[in-house]
Amino acid sequence: MAATNADDHHRKLQLRHSSSSSSFSSKLSNPVLACRASSVSHETSSLRKDNESPVHGLSEMIVGVLGGGQLGRMLCQAASKMAIKVMVLDPSENCPASALAYDHMVGNFDDSATVQEFAKRCGVLTVEIEHVDAATLEKLEQQGVDCEPRASTIRIIQDKYLQKVHFSQHDIPLPEFMEIDNLEGAKKAGGLFGYPLMIKSKRLAYDGRGNAVAKSEEELSSAVAALGGFDRGLYVEKWAPFVKAPADVPWKIRKLANDVAYKAISSLEGAGVFAVELFLTGDGQFEQHLRAVVGLPLGDPSMKTPASIMYNLLGEEEGEAGFKISQQLIARALEIPGATVHWYDKPEMRKQRKMGHITLVGPSMGVVEARLNSMLKEEGSENKIEAAPRVGIIMGSDSDLPVMKDAAKLLNMFGVSYEVRVVSAHRTPELMFSYASSARERGIQVIIAGAGGAAHLPGMVAAMTPLPVIGVPVRATQLSGVDSLLSIVQMPRGVPVATVAVNNATNAGLLAVRILGVGDSDLLARMSQYLEDMKDDVLTKAEKLQKDGWEAYLNP
């Protein structure tokens, strides 16, 4: 597992260093805060006068942010929920963060004098972009200003080559890389690493900018020219192919990836949210960053939804034409369940400029991917986007279908997508293995398995997938299904199969809906209504029986 540069595919990992034990303490007469990631302790913003009423928020200090782009805007949004005041320093009067910030100082965040003046008005200084003057931050730290993350970290991350050297010195797995100063050096790298070859700028590289691919030695010169030449400072990486990002990988691989990310971040100084590329998380990193830099307890970084996708809104055309294209896509997004639009309110539209993003959430990655496809399809398209199946209905033989169809009917009634397959544990063991091992990756969340006789299918599938498996004993022999019932229900410890009554695929469908309903409030509401309808049905029958008598009831 390597920490590689694949832009826009991140898993955010929040980390508070334990190198110091400074904690929150506050007296209204002289509030003092210490960032948990540093030993810096200082008074809050000098803007507050002694005779002013204290701010009764989660933090007394004013957070200063170098940069007022979309990340600064989202930082301000998170701060407003916690009554934390955020000031931004940005050269644009109409920067995205300006409308939401507590205050906006217009000025360049890479100008030393301006940054030093800005710092006087803040209790802690942080950044929303790494392209700042690290030397100025070092001076401020020497003067006692709390800068998070530390200037040493900023210096490392703003030079991608220096970043690679740093991580290699800390035994972080990386793609092979080397510095290049001329065309001969680039050719040497191509001979060593092979093609295609990734060429990158050391500095000012982000969101796909500063990268060029040479597919052969003949393309080296044009790739270097596209990056501004060797004087810009270039290095190369061995090509790191990946099929899909984010990858739905097994738990062991995910843990290994987290370990790599933790090790990488542990080598850096300071507080905040760090991104290790090729990993994905949900939102919440902006509130987490604020908590880290002002010394509040960190929140739970786990996903709040089972699956999510972020789609970037990039400028496709200049000016009004580009705005029109974006608005058309936003209009489609507003019709998609689980879609939320985040527009950055940037005043100028340029090609490939990030203008916003859309988050889509849902009960499974398959469902979310289907929603994304529906959002991206052109208006008037005749291609129907089918919902990815959430439930897999499998059986050992088509002779089981008359029983298993009841599960499908029940799922239809609740609007739950599903698939129906014949998968024999004895006659097609390879197919059974393939189905069970791939179900989760395809978005399946529950498996209903029907089997008669020896009835090995439910248990074998349960042994090969972490998904819940519901077994339906099918009456297929002279033993009236008792044999299949006992076979399914008597699974060994560690391989659970939820078993319903013989031939009762309806209950299997209901149980699947209840399992899905744990993470789907709409589905749970429908289940509650189903129970109410059953009660009303029984009460109606009871009233009719009492009113008409049993003879009339049986002979209407």
From TrEMBL:
Q: Which GO terms describe its biological process?
A: 'de novo' IMP biosynthetic process
Entry annotated with the keyword Nucleotide-binding:
yes
Q: EC number(s) of the enzyme?
A: 4.1.1.21
Q: What keywords tag this UniProt record? A: ATP-binding, Nucleotide-binding, Purine biosynthesis
Report the residue ranges that make up the ATP-grasp domain in this protein: 164-239
Identify which top EC class this enzyme belongs to.
Answer: lyase
Q: Organism's domain of life?
A: Eukaryota
Which pathway is it part of?
A: Purine metabolism; IMP biosynthesis via de novo pathway; 5-amino-1-(5-phospho-D-ribosyl)imidazole-4-carboxylate from 5-amino-1-(5-phospho-D-ribosyl)imidazole (carboxylase route): step 1/1
Does the UniProt entry include the keyword Oxidoreductase? no
A single GO molecular-function term is:
metal ion binding
Q: Where is the composition biased (Basic and acidic residues)?
A: 1-10
Spell out the GO cellular component terms annotated for this protein, sorted alphabetically and separated by semicolons: chloroplast
Region span, Disordered: 1-26
Extract the Pfam families matched here: AIRC, ATP-grasp, PurK_C, RS_preATP-grasp-like
The cross-references to PANTHER family, in alphabetical order and at most eight, read:
PHOSPHORIBOSYLAMINOIMIDAZOLE CARBOXYLASE, PURINE BIOSYNTHESIS PROTEIN 6/7, PUR6/7
Protein name stated in the entry: phosphoribosylaminoimidazole carboxylase
